[in-house]
Amino acid sequence: MKEYILAKTADLDTVFNIVQNSIKSTYPKYYPKEVVDFFCNLHSRENILKDIECGSVGILIVEGKCVGTGCYKGNHITRVCVEPEYQGNGFGTYIMNRLEEKIAKKASTAVLDASLPAAHLYSSRGYKTVEHCKYPVENNVILVYEVMEKELTLTRKEKSFIEMKIFQVKPDKLEQFETKIEEMAENQLKCLGCISLKYFKRFYTIDGIKLGEPPRKLTKIVKCVKYYSFWEFDTKENYGKAIKAFFDDYNKELQKLLIAPFDINLGDSV
């Protein structure tokens, strides 16, 4: 069994050890000692603790053992590390998938500073170099790295879903809810949509659906739902995680306006 979960302060030692072990076993093959020491200091216990306290660090659990960790800030992926003995099993790719999913809810691109050991992984995932950078470390050694970027816009295939969640808005919170939705950035609505049963044409579109039109297969479902409803779809790759992702990551103020969701399973795509 494999799961990627939010790291807690109690996981600090585990995360720190994974990061340090990964750096010390891999980076000396590519960099001089000064650069290796720089990365070890950059990912210090204190810095990792700050990231955990900000809720931006995740850990990958495989068969009950923590084998890797990832971190992001905004749309910037800042850390992806796997224990040396577990490298080469696709765990780095798995962590990247989870980080990109989280970022895609709030931004249209992901950015990272590419180290030499991971540059091939990032390139294979569609990241493109947007800037070449230099940074001086000890003994006049220069660290050269690339800033890479990737478009996270979902493709038509990725939009296929097999599970849908409908969230009913509290009747006395309709106006507040509608105002909140209108304030949300367009890229935050990629996997989200809203329909008013009373004003059926007031639909907040997602990519691939024309503004003002409901997604296919949804109209017959929402007839039993009163008031204003909020829905999101779950990708095939991420099946069963949509509701957890919403309540873990989405706007807390928006959550307060919702009633518990209905579970609806489809087999189609928009």
UniProtKB/TrEMBL annotation:
<dbReference type="GO" id="GO:0016747">
    <property type="term" value="F:acyltransferase activity, transferring groups other than amino-acyl groups"/>
</dbReference>
<dbReference type="Pfam" id="PF13673">
    <property type="entry name" value="Acetyltransf_10"/>
</dbReference>
<feature type="domain" description="N-acetyltransferase">
    <location>
        <begin position="2"/>
        <end position="153"/>
    </location>
</feature>
<dbReference type="InterPro" id="IPR000182">
    <property type="entry name" value="GNAT_dom"/>
</dbReference>
<protein>
    <submittedName>
        <fullName>Acetyltransferase (GNAT) domain-containing protein</fullName>
    </submittedName>
</protein>
<dbReference type="InterPro" id="IPR016181">
    <property type="entry name" value="Acyl_CoA_acyltransferase"/>
</dbReference>
<keyword id="KW-0808">Transferase</keyword>
